[in-house]
Design brief:
- Helix 1 runs antiparallel to helix 2, helix 17 runs parallel beside helix 19 and helix 20 packs across helix 22.
- It is globular and about 85 Å long.
- It is an alpha/beta fold.
- It starts with a strand and ends with a helix.
- The strands form two sheets. It has an eight-stranded mixed β-sheet.
- Strand 4, helix 6 and strand 5 form a beta-alpha-beta unit.
- The chain is built from 23 helices and 17 strands.
- Bound molecules: phosphoenolpyruvate (PEP) and magnesium ion (MG).
- Magnesium ion binds next to helix 18.
Amino acid sequence: MDLKGTGASAGIGIGRVVIVEEPTLDYVSRTVEDTAAETERLNAAIASYIDYTNGQAETMRETVGEKEAEILTGHIVMISDPYMQGEMVKLVEGGMCAEDALVQICEMFATMFEATGDELTMQRATDVRDVKTGVLAELMNKRPVDMGTLPLESIVVTHDLTPSMTAGIRPGAVAGVITETGGLTSHSAILARAMEIPAVLSVPGVCHKLADGDLVVVDGSAGTVVIDPAEDVLEQARADQAAFAAERAELAKFIGCRTTTASGENLELFANIGKPDDATQAMERDAEGIGLFRTEFLFMDSPTAPTEDEQFEAYKKVALICKNKPVIIRTLDIGGDKDVPYLGLDKEDNPFMGFRAIRYCLAREDLYRAQLRALLRASAFGEIRIMVPLVTCVDELTAVKDLIKRYMQEFDQEGIAYNPDIQVGVMIETPAAAVIADLLAEEADFFSIGTNDLTGYTMCADRGNDKVRYLYSTYNPAVLRSIRRVIEAGNEAGIMVGMCGEAAADPTLVPMWIAFGLGEYSVSATSVLATRKTISLWTKEEACEVADKVMQLKTASEVYEVLQESAR
Ligand code: PEP
Ligand code: MG
């Protein structure tokens, strides 16, 4: 029997299960007479907890990093809050024992954080409970589990991997982690990724399904756990593990570097996301911004259209996660293959050429207003840029800009903050937009080439239709000429030209984009470092030599062949 969960930290872990349970911290409630002595006991436990956690933070700083240590110093800040401590002392002064007072106040805060419904704030509920467990352990003279004594190659199986548990892990000792709870952005996930430990989270009942000593293979990319693997599975897992380690080591050299060609041109390397939380991983993978936030997922994941406030929270969250790095948010790109039942889109004979994306939004101003206003409000919290999908004529862009101006006036009257210089750009993903790129460049603040659709529309070949798949290729001279034209028009007008379709991360095509003068590449979070590496391998001159050759060719297969031969 194999298990499935959320793959939260990539890599393959092979080892024996160690079930790690938090110490039971059951205590008997009692009333106290000597409240002064009880207050002192509480204060001493808090002081001792702070001392212990400081030590853990120091270890974490040395073994993992400053950012991760801040999770623990955050716990110290939390418990040092005079209001929180004051509330506990008040309860003790009323005759409550220190344990009860601690639990009651911590739970009050945890419930308050959970009630916000905002994931980042909800994460603080886990933190406050971790603090509660830590101080309770001090009151009862029981320290939390010490992961420093685990045997090598352990696969830790636990209900939730708390930061305080993680702090004790010696680098290299834990081969994998499996938990019952926690998502991609939980602290367990963030810490597992920072420590490069393969992790599969949210596996229901895993603490009962596995037993100490079980041999397992944890695949932190696929989110799977193989129990008692056969010899051939084990062999394959070892090979995958070695390949993964080699690739990781190679790509690690590119963390923290600028994205630069071998001849020194600086380029921008962003990431594509579908949900606000994905921004965390994008930043961890060292993306320099978000080049495409596909907002339709916010609409698809909800039973009714998300309100202006809900959207504002989502966009603000991305802005805050990205800390003033550029965040390009595409307005609703609905229709075609993306249906949202409650929007009541009619069935059309040809939905890809029908009433969709910006065409639909401009006709549904009620809906679009909420999105544009949410984006403007969120622009006060970071470098948010607005991108309009499926543009085919200048009027569409001017209509959006007019709406934005109108909503800015509304905000001026309402006294609501926004960025008055917010950039408004267009996705170039239709042949029409490519042909009038020079005209659009006069009105747009930036371009982002959507090669997924531009390829399909240019070749008149649906990306989902197997029978015409042989035509659906960005290597076609028609598509390459179109892309070159767009990049040149944008560069001539002095606006940023990016690319957010899959072709931006295709290592064989990267020299073409360098040669054409593409300024920004937006790829999936997992491709960021690989793309930075590919870019670093080409000088502009070498890329231009390849492009000159390729642009003489007549067929997609010839292009493919030459690019494969020159690939680095
Ligand atoms: C594109 O068309 O290239 C693109 C990035 O948008 P989507 O894949 O969401 O249509
Ligand atoms: Mg598209």
